[in-house]
Amino acid sequence: WKHLPITSRHPWALPAAIAAECAHDQNHFWEMHDLIYANQASLSDAAFSSYAQQIGLDMTTWQACLSTDPPKQRILADENMATRARVDATPTFFFNGAALVGAQPLDSFLSMIDAAQQSAMTSGADAGGYYSAMEGQGCL
Prior knowledge:
Helices cover 56% and strands 6% of the residues. By secondary structure, it is mainly α. 14% of the residues are buried.
């Protein structure tokens, strides 16, 4: 998972990402993520606070985190990575450097997985060194 809050279309995207990152600090990223996505039509600071309570976060710690730099820096790092990878839409999935953009049927994912597996098997790189080799080629 990498953040790419598209604030021009979703004004609550950045606050939602920050709320999720602060939940991550307490090992509850996915619970916060799921509540945010299930309730996209009613996002607000009060809603995020309610979600944090629902998943059992330490509220004092979570609220203090919201205005600190570390979660924002992690989100900015993700945005910079997206820029370097030329990602401009969500969701975007990568399979050994090949992108699959947008909501896609399961068959599209399976096809990409099969192609990535075949590429890895024919690359000649051992399993432990495959990703290093891909990085060296600018694929990751």
